[in-house]
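Sorry, any thoughts here?
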Amino acid sequence: MSKLLIHLATGPENPTRGALALLVARTAVDEGHDVQVFLAGDAVQYARPATASTAQGIGTGSFGEHWEALVAAEVPIYLSAMSSNARGLEPEAAAEGIEMAAPAKLVEAATWADSTLTY
């Protein structure tokens, strides 16, 4: 099976794109692929539980439901620490299943992956 990195940088202003990223990650996990997710830029806003639970894509489902499925499947979910700091998101305010990460983690995940999908 393949190793996929899903890199989400689009924030809650486009919940369809955000939910699509996690839907693809969830589908890949369900098909037996190894998946890692990295949220950067405005996408770190999804780490706020209230935002994640209300974001609904058009035709791509619930961001929160996809998130919960990925956490349950123990998919590594990384959150850009620099993007979070710039947007006032404290680590303790982030949703379950997140690891704060530096840019080096994104580079590591991209070199680990057979393919990187960016949303």
Summary: Helices lie at 15-30, 49-54, 63-72, 81-86, 103-112. The chain has a mean pLDDT of 94.
